[in-house]
From TrEMBL:
Protein name in UniProt: Carbon-monoxide dehydrogenase small subunit
Keywords attached to this entry: 2Fe-2S, Iron, Iron-sulfur, Metal-binding, Oxidoreductase
Gene Ontology molecular function terms on file: 2 iron, 2 sulfur cluster binding; anaerobic carbon-monoxide dehydrogenase activity; metal ion binding
Pfam family, one: Fer2_2
PROSITE patterns noted in UniProt: 2FE2S_FER_1 (PS00197), 2FE2S_FER_2 (PS51085)
Residues annotated as transmembrane: none
Domain of life: Bacteria
Its EC number(s): 1.2.7.4
InterPro entries for this protein: 2Fe-2S-bd, 2Fe-2S-bd_dom_sf, 2Fe-2S_ferredoxin-like_sf, 2Fe-2S_ferredoxin-type, 2Fe2S_fd_BS, Beta-grasp_dom_sf, Diverse_Oxidoreductases
Length: 158
């Protein structure tokens, strides 16, 4: 099939796509967007999280054909040109990145959380990130990063 959809605000077309291949494969291998990571390919780790029509999904569980005509926003689309999103800056500043495999998914999920809950409690952060697994950091730096991102996002809005 020919897949037509929007990625990070730009229209894209991909030819000879097998309907059953994953959106994650299309993004990484056909469109050259390697930010979303392929860690488990079965919906367990959250490393491949992207927005699909504004809702975070595991791109490894979305068939390419399901993305036809829809809008995808990947971790590459969070930054404004060269300027990182406050969530991205906070992860860097808090030292919440080690191997980085989980980071793109955590960034998208945190971005979504703060859009819905600008000042989340620790319990709300844990719940929102429950589907994003990290085997390096022990999660404390990630919690610090999300708290910092919430603070920065709130400051940016005032
Ligand atoms: S690679 Fe998609 S959830 Fe792990
Ligand atoms: S930083 Fe390595 S899996 Fe999270």
């Amino acid at each position: 099939m020919r897949l037509r959809f929007t990625v990070n605000g730009q229209p894209h077309e991909a030819d000879d796509v097998w309907e059953g291949e994953s959106l994650l494969y299309v993004l990484r291998e056909r469109l050259g967007l390697p930010g979303s990571k392929n860690a488990c390919e079965q919906g367990e780790c959250g490393s491949c999280t992207v927005y699909l029509d504004g809702v975070p999904v595991c791109a490894c569980l979305v068939a390419a054909g399901q993305a036809e005509g829809r809008e995808v926003r990947t971790v590459e689309g969070l930054a404004d040109g060269e300027r990182l999103d406050p969530v991205q800056e906070a992860f860097v500043e808090a030292g919440a990145v080690q191997c980085g495999f989980c980071t793109p998914g955590l960034l998208v999920q945190t971005h979504d959380l703060l859009a819905r809950r600008p000042r989340p409690s620790d319990a709300e952060i844990r719940e929102a990130l429950a589907g994003n697994l990290c085997r390096c950091t022990g999660y404390e730096k990630i919690m610090d990063a999300v708290r910092l991102a919430a603070q920065r996002t709130a400051e940016a809005r005032t």
